[in-house]
Please model this.
Amino acid sequence: MVKLTREIMQEICNNLMIDLSEQEIEIITKLIENSVNKINTIKNLDFSDVKPMHYPTIKFEGEFRKDEPQEFDNKKALLELAGEIEDGYIKV
Model:
C-alpha cells in the first residue's frame, strides 16, 4: 500500500484547488491514514463463519400491517401550510 505523504496530499490539494496550510495538511493526512488503517483492519477480519443478514437493522417478527387510506378532516388547512400545491397535492 502506498503511504500518504505530504507531497501526495499537496498534489491532491492542488488538483482540488484547495489551499491548505502545512498544519492543515498534516492533520488531514493523519485523519486519512487513520481511516485507511481502520478499513484495512476490517478488510483483514475473517467473516467466513458469519451468517449473512438480509436486514441487519430490522428485527421483524410477524406480518406487515395492511395500509388503509384514511381521510383527513381538515385537508384544506393542511394544504394551506404547504409551500406549493398542484392538483390538490403538495408539490415537492
